[in-house]
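for the writeup, i need someone to sanity check this before i put it in the appendix. the sequnce is what the collaborator sent (i think, or maybe the updated version? ugh). structure was predicted straight from it, no edits. if anything looks off just tell me and ill rerun, i have time this weekend
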Amino acid sequence: MNLFLQSALPKSSTFMMLATMSVTQMLVCLLAVLVMLFALILPVQPASMAVASKFKITTSQATWGSACAVVGSRLFMFGGSLGDTGSLTDTTTTCGIYSIDINRTITTGAASDLQMHGLLDSEDPDYGFRNQIAFVRLNGQVFLIGGRYNNSVGEALKGDFTVEVAYLFDATTGESKRPDSKAGIPYHSSIQASAAIYDKSAPFIYMFGGYKDKNLTVENTLTVIQGSDGRVISSNLDTSEMDGRGLASLGRFNASHQVISGGTLNGRKEGDVLDDQWLFSYQPFLFTRLPHSMANARYLHQSVGYKNRYLIHVGGASPAKQYELVEYVDLKSSQVKIGTIDNPSMGPKSLASGCMHMEGDVIIYMGGFEPTENDVLAAFVNLLLVQANDSDGTLKFRWVTGTGVPTAATPSNGTVAKMTPTPEPEPSNAVAVGERAGL
């Protein structure tokens, strides 16, 4: 007799009951007992799994610290810290994936065709990720590496765990998996300057700096990763000319050069945040410091090359008393200029740690937080039109969020237009100068 049955029935009545039961009745009772046993034996699924499986975002929310990539006509966002627009950045982290249609968003002035694509990590769905780096492969798959994670999507990202495993997202099927690739990326290394796009002339992923340990000892090493297979091909390139830092902006300027700018030694206070700008090429390997520093020292900012002449910086956390949302470098005149926004009241005063993509003349800025407004979460999307004055070479900016532009100039549409290399400027002796978001 099963011990469970013995404890459930009085001993004196056990034999009599069995004697009067038919075979069918006995089978029904046995089945019921088995169901009860399985319910006791099988473990209860953790609550965090249920939370993660219900990942959802609306256009009244935003993420910050997301990785992002363009595949076809869609801008994909991966992970980040999620919350309602206007709420504080002490939010929950996620490994969810979502996307918008780029062209329709630009023409309508609002996020269009918002889609959700499940979770980046189905094996550990309670993990949340922040500040990963994305790379788009020839087949449209998005490779992600580095960043930070926490071990509960229902908790704010407090830990300093570095993500060693890589992820691969197929934009066609919506499936994610873990390839065999692993890389030890320093904690708080450089962030994506702008959204990843497929570019056959740029086969590598670059990460600069970060911290060696929990004492926040800065590194000044450049890590180079083969984008096609996630293999680390160099992690000790000589960058002794450049100070170590965390959370600098690193990304593509043109077909031959990457750009690194800003970063922090430790926090947001004056003297810790850097303002220098560097162009570098990998083959041949060469670092060149731009003649002028940024107008604002900043980190967690986004940067993009424009018309093979301008380097535009948007947002970032900064100790500057006079915060400038947009500034740009004119490499032809070798001047740093503040970006004048014609209608500043139609957009945020500050932005940081969002995702930026430039399509034609329009900057799409997804999420982020507003560092001059107590780090509250920014709007789901902001759109900024860039206009060049051919007569004097200056740039003008205008918010087109809510209005859009009639016809978007979209030569790239998920690919990179061919550019000619920019002549390398001479290095200078300029000296770099110098939370709520936990950075």
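The first helix runs from residue 3 to 8. Residues 1-21, 33-53, 408-438 have pLDDT under 50 and may be disordered.
thx in advance!!
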